[in-house]
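Ticket #4471: structure export looks truncated?
Reporter: QA, pipeline team
Priority: medium

Steps to reproduce: submit the single chain below to the structure queue and open the exported record.
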Amino acid sequence: MDRLQLVNCVQQALRAEGQTLAELAEAASFATALPVVMSELFNGNAEINGNVNKFEGMNPTVIVYDLCQHMVVNIVKQVTMLLGVSLPPLLMVLPCNAAAAFHMFASGKNNGVWATVIRDTQEEIAKGATPVEAFAKVAQERPYFYLVCQPNLTMNGPHLATCPLHPEMTMTILPSYHALQDSATKGVILSSAAELEPVAVEALEAEIGKKVYMAGPQFPGVMWEGHSTIQTHSADDERVVRFLDEMKIKHGSRSVCYLSFGSAFFPLLRPELIRYIVHTLRQANTPFVFAYASGIGPVPEDLLRECEGIENGCLVRFGPQWAVLNHEATSFFITHCGSNSTGEAILAEVPIVSIPFFGDQAQYAALLTEVLHVGIDLKQTKTFQHPDLYNILYDGTVIVGPEAAIKKGDGGGMGKDEGEGRRRDEDTDEEGERDDEPEQRDGTVPFEYEGAGVHLVLHYVDHYDRSILILNNLQS
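Actual output as written to the record:
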């Protein structure tokens, strides 16, 4: 730790209601304080923002900044120019995979999200809209689900309309597009593994014309070394582990579903998706742990009340995720496919069922379910705000809605349009059903596939109106 020093870079105490406003206030405070801090750093001062400078007399030789700290580029350029010192190379950190970075930062001709949003909002502002009105309208009315790029760079449509999207947040992040284009930014650092997406890495480097450094997921050494000792740090942690212990005794190993969408996202605008999943798990007599942390707003109280007191269910706001994923009782993980959750699931060797919402989650879901085939994507839960105009996914799957899909008989929408309701394999007939597979006693028809040592069984539900899927996971 002698080579590391942390310096608080804020101008004043933050006072803001809600996570979104707090993050905006923090960014403003950081941007205001940064010029002074940078000047002290480049001058080699004995103190930096009131802290003793461990590296007095040493000028920065490289500057690494997060995409949300896009203001760093202009501030560093101005400070070095005023001080008459050389401008060091800058590297932007993108906490995502290469496919998502391509989608965000590709040019307008390749339908890059930021380039397209900038163009569309400028059009709205030219018509008389305020910036906030323009960003809100663009986010609501125009889809950014498609992508023109090199082959094999698979895209999934995220559940954008399930989560509130504040236009101020988009406005705050958008300048990162220009920061990356700036000649002072020499490359990007990504928190994904190059081995998982070599085509996307190559496409991204060619598109932005800068070096891409794939740093890989960042986890403690004990996780990389395969240590799965169950550790608890709170009463809730102990309660969850105790529940898993009980479920292992009651239902056996690999019997529990872990349901979590991380600490930031939650389908607040479509809570019925959670009801579908919980009802389905109950119908299948599948125990579950439901971690419901939500950074974008409070989870509806009526939804939580419905989930409380379920015999084989455990409700917790913040679950001990690493402990849950490594517990012998855990079978599979219904996840938003955030970068941390995806990395932890891979390290714990737990198969996933994906329901991505935002950012790079859809690309991780596509990678795991469509490229590596180690998971299942809940396609029929995806949301289109204008289903009469946009209702087809990248692979041709027509989104008809969970309940309608069930009544049609293709459950989770694993297949494509018109009669291809189930993926086919060597043992399926023309209708996509297994010739030698009798209908189950509960009225469901199973679909099976194997990958990476995991045998997944997906049951399509025809008789239960309030369900999407019955999911079982068996380790082969």
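Status: closed, not a bug. The export was complete when the record was re-opened. Leaving a note from the reviewer for reference: The chain has three domains: 19-92, 94-214, 226-475.
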